[in-house]
Amino acid sequence: MRADRLVSLVLLLRQRGRLSATTLARELEVSTRTVLRDIDALSAAGVPVYAERGRHGGFSLLPGFRTELTGLNHDEALALLVAGSRRGAQAFGLGSALASAMLKVIDALPESHRDAAAGLSERLLIDPETDLLSRRAPADEVPDAVVAEIRRAVLAGRRLRIRYAAVDRPAKWRTVDPIGLVTVRDRGYLLATRSGADRTYRLSRVSAAQTLPEAARRPDRVDLDRTWRERSTRFRTGGDQIAALVRMDPLRRRELVDTALAVLDEETDADGRLRLEVTFQDARHAEWALWQLATDAEALAPQWLRDSLRDRAVTIATRYGAAVSVDG
DNA sequence: AGGACAAGGTCAACATCATA
DNA sequence: TATGATGTTGACCTTGTCCT
After folding, report:
1. Are A146 and A208 in contact (CB under 8 A)?
2. Å: A18 CA to C5 C1'
3. I need a labelling partner for A74 at 20 to 30 A (CA). Which of A29, A45, A238, A309 fits?
4. In chain A, where the domains are located
5. A87: CB partners within 8 A, 6+ apart
6. Residue ranges in chain A whose pLDDT is less than 50
């Protein structure tokens, strides 16, 4: 709390010049005495703040003093900026605070770093709502040097040569036009185009990368969040995967989400039970997942899945000697 | 000289945390 | 759980400067 206030105090003095302890106290919602102690702390820490007593007195920073965020190197500033995940801030009601904080960080950056910072949101996306693989998975191991090289190409807008191994395929070199980087739960993806076609590469499958001198072909304005959503939707609905609508006990949500390939939609019914639309690898996968949840979950659709679960339950009940009557 | 205003000093209350 | 150390804060008072 106090550290936050010290930063605010310096920023206030920077923006508005000389301010009295009374004014600062009002702005920071503390007593004047607390402001004076904070000034002491700043002074002891080396911030050149000085006091002028008397009728028009107050506190000022030494002319020309800037907050030393310029001491950040390029990657440090980058990390700070991408850490302010837009969606996370909105979720916690901090959207406007984050926006102003980011402006201050950009303002404090050296000129040479500002252009790169301004275009970050078009090239880096952290933890989007849509996940390609909802099953729990270990964090990807990607060599720092490879990620750093890919990041350089993405931020510089250069073409990239990567050695990539698709599933069950040998690794081979390919030249791509990077669009952006996305991280989801410890996994990283490179969004790119190759010969004009959309491609998504999992970073853990890239064993080497080289930035090429030529500029990448890239759309003028990129909404990375939207691009990611479109690609992940195509991925999830492709192949033989099947979608199911499930009504279930919220306490067992985690088990279903960990088992399913992806969660397409989720809402809570009036009685507190969850209604989830999830995808499974195939019919057998769906039957198995729902069977594990026993009476805590009900498949509402598709009908064949309901029929399959009913038949299985009837078989088990009959085997153990119960008199079974099935409606509909 | 005296009042107004602002910084600075002292003290006590309170909250938090570590330790016995 | 009780106790002490530590950090934070506000109230009250003193000191310094400026203006009338």
Report:
1. yes
2. 37
3. A45
4. 2-61, 74-121, 156-237, 242-320
5. A127, A128, A129
6. 1, 68-74, 76-77, 80, 83-96, 129-139, 328
